Amino acid sequence: MHAQKYTHNAQNPCGILPADDTPLPHRPHSHIAKAQRADSCGHRPTTRAVVCTQLTNVRAEHEFVKSTTVIMIDTIQLYDLIQQAIKDELPVEELVSKLNESCDPSSGEDRNELFDSIADALALSDIENNICDKDLKSREKLLGIIKTLNVAQLLPLDIAQERLDVETIGQVNLIPDKKQFSTSYVRLRTKLYFTQTKFNLLREQNGGYAKLITELFRLDPSNSEEVLANVVEIIGHYRVDPNRVLDLILDIFQHNAIGTGQPDIFIEFINSFYDDKAKLLDLLQLRLSFYASKNNELFHIPITFYRMLAIFIHKRIFELDDFQAFLHPDDAKVLEYHKKLVGEAKLLSRKYAMAVVGDEKPTKSVIETLKETSPVDYHYLEVDNHKVNLCAHLIDLGDWQQAMELARSLPEYHCLSNQRVARSTCALINHLIDPIYRECALPKPLSSRIKPICLFDTTRVPQITTIQDLDLEVFPIVLALGPFLSHDVLTLTKMVRVLKHVLLYKPSEEGALDALTAENALYLRILDVISCSILPSISLTCANSSLAREAWQLIKNFKPHIRYRLYYDWRDEGSNPIALRNKGQILLKAKHHMKRLSKESLRQCARHIGKMCYSNPVITLNYILIQIQSYDNLITMVVDALRFLPPIALDSMIYCIIEALSDPHKNKKSNDGLALAQWLTNLSTFASSVIFRYKVEFTTYLEYISNQLRVGNSLDLVLLADLIEKMTGIEAIQAITDDRIEALMGGDVLRTEGAYFNQVKNTRKSSARLREALIVSRLAMPLCIYMAQLRDRLFFNQHDTTTPLKLVGKLYDQCQETFVQYGVFLSMNLSIDDYINFLPSLEKLMIEHKLDPDTAFFLARPMIFHRIRSKFHELKSVAEKDITVEEGEAPELSPQTKGIKFVEAARHVLDPLADTIQPLLAEKYTSCNLNPKLFVIFWTLSMSDIDVPLRCYEREIARLSQVVNEIQGEEDQKKRKERDRCGILVEKLKQELSEQQEHTKYMRMYLESEKNN
C-alpha cells in the first residue's frame, strides 16, 4: 500500500481550526490575526521585516475601512496609544478612558470592532516586543496593560485566547494551565486535520503504480502477453497489492472505453490477469456505491464508467441484475415522479383548453419544486439518472435487448424520452435501415455517390437488407421509441420513405414477399408504426413542411377509413407528459392566432396556422372548428386562411368535420326546437366552402351524409343542400316567381341562365369534382333514393314526439327542394350511360325501394327519354334507307314521317312500362280504376315536354345580345372573354329553342295519337 497518508486542509496549511468549525466563539477579522495564527503554528518570524509587512497590511486595511460608510476603529492609532503606555508616556488609566470614549457604548457593533482592533494592536505589540525588544520592563508593562484592559472589559477573554500568543495569555493568567491548554489545542488540531486513514501494512512502494500505469497504457492486441508478464513482475518487485492493480486496470479500461479504444483487449487482459469474476463484480459494485448520495453530497458518474459497465453487460460477463440494486434512483421513486409529471401536464393541457387562460397565479412546476425541496432526488431523477444513462450506453453498443430490459423497469417512455437515449436509438435505427433506404428511397445515381452510413460495427450490429428483417429488427425499436423519433428528423424522414416503399412494394421474383393487403400482418404492423411513432413524432417536430409532405405521400396510400383511424390516434395524447405539454402549447398558440384573425392580419395569421398544421393538424383544426361553430363571421376568413395548409392537414380537416358532426352530445336543433342549431348550419357552410375551395377528398363526407339519410336523420340534409349549391351553382328554389317557373320549363341552358343566380363558369370544375366523387363512391343514386324515402316517411317516422310541426314542415320542404336540386345536378352532369348504369329500373324503384310515383318517375325520366330518342333514331335510320335519292344527296324524311316514327318509338318504350306497373296500380289504388298507360304518360312528361317558354328564351337571348353589343369595342381581356361567353350562350339558346320546339311538336303528336286510340 501507499505510504502513510493524512487528510489535510489545503486552505489552512498551518492547521489552525477555521472559524466556521472551531469551538472558539469569535472569528478573526484582520491580517494581524493571521500573523498571530502563523505564530501559533510554530512559524515564528525572525526578522523585523515581518513586522513591517504586518504594519503595511494593517495600514492598507485601515485605508479600506476609512473609505466605507460604517464607523470603525483605527488600529494604527490604538497601536500608537499602547506603545505610549508601554513607554510610560501615557498613563494606563488615561488609555482606558480614551478607549472607552472612542466607541458608542450603546452600539454593539462598534464595541465588537473596538475589541477586535485592541486585540490586533496588542498582538502586534506582543510580536514586536518578542522580536525586537528584549527589555523585561517593557514586557511587564505590556502584560500589565493586557490585564488592565481585560479587567476594564475592553479585551474579552475569548478574543484574548484567540488572538494572543499562548505564552502571553498564560503570563497574564487568562488560562488556568498553559501546558494543558497547549496540549488540548494540539490534540484537537491533529484530530481534525491529521488523522491517519490508511496504513501501508504491505510496505508498498509508490513507484510501482507509476510503472503499472505506463505499462497498461501501451496495451494493444500485439503485446498483451508481454504487458501481462510485465505487470506480474512489477507486482512482485514493488510489493503492489494485486486487488489494487485490478482496480487500476479498470481505471485504464474506463479511460479507453469510449473513442478509439479497443474494449475487447481489456476484457481479454482482465480475464488473463484475474479470473475471479466475483472480485471484479465487487469492485464495480463498490464504485457504484461510492457514487450514491452520501450526506447530501452529489457525485456525477463519468460517462466512461457507464460505457465500461455497458461493455461488461453486453459481453455477458455480468448480468444486468447484478447492478440493479446499486443504480439510482429506485423504481418506486421514479414511478411517483412520473405520475406527478403526467398530472401536471394534464392540468396544463386542460388549462390551455379553457376559454380564459392567464388569470391564475403562476405556480412552480414539479421539476422546480423538486429542485428546491430535494436536490438529491432532482440530481438522480433529472440530471444523472443511472438507469437512463446505462440504457443509452447499451444502445450505443447496439445491445437493444438489454437496453429494453432496463427501460421496461421504468414507466412508459420515461427512459426513451431522455434526449441522450432517444438520439442513440435514432442512430441505431439509421444504421439498421441504411442499405434498404439506399435501395428504395434514393435514385441510383444519387445512392452510388453517397457513402453508406455505418454508425456501428457491422460485424456486431448487422444492417438489414430485406423487408422481413425490417419487420423483425426495426419495427420493434421504432414502436418502443414512440414519439421520440422526433429527436432525429433525418432518421424520421428515412423511416417514412422506407414505409412508403414497403406499402407500394410489388414482388418481381418468385418466392419474394407477397404484395401487402389489409389482412397481412406486416400491413397491420406498418399501421401500428405510423400510429404510435411516425405521426406522434411529427407532432413534436418544429413545423417541418418537407416532413409533412413526406408523411402525406405515405398516408395517402391508405383508404380513407384507415387514414381517419390514424388521425384519431394522432389526436389522442396518451399519458406521455411531453406530448401532453405539447398539446397544451399548440392549443395556446391556436387560441392566440384565432383571437387576432381579421381581414388586416389574415395573411400573417394564416401563415402561423399553416405552420402549426405542419406538425399538429388535428389538434389545431379541432380548435378552429370549435370557434367556427360559435361564430359564423369567421367562416370566410378561416376558409381563406387555410390556403397555407399542407395536403395532410386538408385531409384531416374533413375528418375533423365529420367527427364534429357525429358528436352524440350535441343537439342539432335550436333551443326553441323550431330550427336547426347554429353550430350545425355553420359547420355545413364551412364544410361546403372548404370542399369547393380546395382539392380535398370528400367521399367520406358524402358517405356520412348517405348514412345519416339512410337511418332517417333529416337534420343532416342541410349538409347535402349546401354542398350541392356551393359545388354546382344549382340553388334550392324557395322564393319562386313566374319568370323562374317559366325558365325552369326550358332546357338545361335556359334553366342555368334564367332560373339560377350563379353562373356555370364558376362551378364547372367543382361540379366535375362532385360528379367524380359520386361515381367513385357509387353514391350518386343511393343519395337520391334515400332522400325520396326520407321525404315519404318524414311525417311518420319522428322518433322524438316533441318535435314541433313547424320544424317537420321545414324539413319536408327542404327534403323536396334538395331532392329536386340533386336530381337536376345528376341530369346535367352525369353522362346518360353512367345514369343508366347507376339507376335501378323503374320497377325496382317503385317495388323494392317503395318510392312514390312522382319521385320514381322524376329519377327515371332521363332514362325513359333516352330510350325513346334511341329508338327514334333507330327507326329514322331504317326509314332513310328505304328512300331513293340521287348520288351525293343525303336522305331526308318529311316532318310528318318523323312524327310518326317518334310516336312509334314512344309507344315502344312506354307501353311495356304500363304493362309492368299495372299489378302495382291494381294493388295500391284498388278504389279507383286507373289506366296504367295514362298513369305512365302523366308522370313521364313534364312542362318542357308539352310547352316551350318562348318569351323566356327571347328575353334571355335579348339580354345576352345586349351585353355583347355593350362590350363590343372593349379591348380588356376580361370583357372580351365575357363577350365571347355571352355570344356562345346566345347560339346555344337558339339551338336549344329549336330542339325543344321540335320535341314538343312530336310529343303533341304522340298525345293526339293516344287520345284517339
Automatic annotation (TrEMBL):
Belongs to the THOC2 family. Its main location: nucleus. This is THO complex subunit 2. Keywords: Coiled coil, Nucleus. GO terms for biological process: mRNA export from nucleus; mRNA processing. Transmembrane segments: none annotated. One of its GO terms (molecular function) is mRNA binding. It comes from Olea europaea subsp. europaea. Residues 929-1012 form the THO complex subunitTHOC2 C-terminal domain. Residues 78-441, 459-607 form the THO complex subunit 2 N-terminal domain.
